Amino acid sequence: MIGLDGKSEIGFRGILPFISTLALVLLMQLQYKITFLDNMFPFLSLTAVYYWCIFKPQLMPVSVVFVLGLLQDILGGGPLGMMALLLVLVQMFVVRQSSRFLEREFLFNWLVFIIVTLVFGLATWIIASVYLKESQNFWDAFGQSMLTIAIFPVVVLGLRWVRSLLVTENR
Amino acid sequence: MKELRHRFSSGFFIILALALLIFGSSNTPVVDKFRSEISDIFVPVLAVASWPLEVVGGVIEWTRQVAIVFSENKSLRAENESLKQAQTKSSQLAIDNQRLKKLLNVGEGKVNTIAAARVVSDSDSPFFKSVLINRGTGDGVKKGLAVINEDGIVGRTINVGTSSSRVLLATDINSRIPVKLASGGINMILEGNNSPYPKLAFLPFGEKLAVGNLILTSGYGMVFPPDLPVGQVVEIGAEGIRIKLSAKLYNLNYVSIVGYEIIRSPVSSPSTKEPDNSSRESNK
């Protein structure tokens, strides 16, 4: 995941992290016609925000994360501000720690992601329960988090390819 | 300095998100308009993006249909014979019914199909059950209309934009639909609980239901027309009476938005008619 030394970013391609995260947000809104996925679709946007905040934090500022989270709230029909708030908190946490993540292996990043996702799932369950004024099924949120953790390597593979488009060889 | 700026902007956006979370929950017209305008922008994109999934779903469904076509054909032939006999009987009853309704001046329910729409997006969340459709005020859609498909009820419109609308599904925790038992006509309320099996509430004391009982819309509330298929009782237990909906809400392609109103034929009595005519003439 690391080791793209000697390379620099190209201006226009700087929007690729935003575009790729937006694509994942839209992907989360589609109807997959599978009863299981209909109930708990992985938090793809969380994976993208986590990834870009580690490797290109300057291209995933808090304002962009807020807009993407808000868009997810609007398109998903959930409470306005829920995803925006949670993704901003994830961005804050990861950007602060990103230098430590960069030095580590993929497995370490995945392990941290497991903790982040479980806390994220717990937070969505708490907010949804407070918002709906009724305790919701916790295991649905847990299942959603587990699916997100399981699919992490696949999403990262795609984002890594997008990241390779961001850089060019220094001549 | 950079760190301070980052902290400040993070704090600002956290406060903004919290404010939206607290004040956005009241569903004020401003929030509704904001939501619908953003949805209007993204619905064409989602419509294009959902095409491949629809094609794949269509192919899978076609393969399934082909696999069962021979076994189903035999049973359908037998069913067709009995239906032909029932049709003759029911047409006689329909004529009788019509005549009696006219005599009693019973209000006729009028169902208008306002628009047919494509489902372009699903919330895919365990806590919020809704879908986005590609029809809005420009097509005559309004807030609070019934949404159905060929299998039964789907939900009702809760947020309407110019070219898109959000439909609250019957399984959502905020959904309440007046229903009745098909065989006995007992009125109840179908309550969504964010699970695929919504519950029946307000079953009158002393009345009993059985697994397999059919549930239809009652028409009360003037949102859903009466006698639309809702589902079947699948479980009666300590957690309540659970219903399996007729419509597969996880597999929606096209839906219809329908309006429902009661129309009563005017009572034709000469004593009430004449003054109306005279007043019209005097206005002229």
If you had to describe this structure to a student in words, what would you say it looks like?
The complex is a heterodimer of chains A (171) and B (284). Chain A has helices spanning 16-29, 35-39, 44-55, 62-76, 82-102, 106-132, 138-166; strands at residues 7-9, 167-169. Chain A has 171 residues and is mainly alpha-helical. In chain A, helix 3 crosses helix 7 (138-166) and helix 6 crosses helix 7 (138-166). Chain A is globular, with a radius of gyration of 16 Å. The two termini of chain A are 23 Å apart. Chain B has a domain at 52-77 and 108-263: Beta Barrel (Thrombin, subunit H), CATH 2.40.10.340. Chain B has helices at 2-23, 29-49, 51-104, 270-283; strands spanning 108-122, 130-133, 146-148, 153-160, 165-169, 176-181, 187-191, 199-201, 214-217, 229-237, 240-245, 254-263. In chain B, the strands form two sheets. A six-stranded antiparallel beta barrel of chain B has the order 1-2-5-4-3-12. In chain B, strand 7 and strand 8 form a beta hairpin. Chain B is globular and about 85 Å long. The model of chain B is unreliable at 270-284 (pLDDT under 50). At the A-B interface, helix 1, helix 2, helix 4, helix 5 and helix 6 of A face helix 1, helix 2, strand 1 and strand 2 of B.
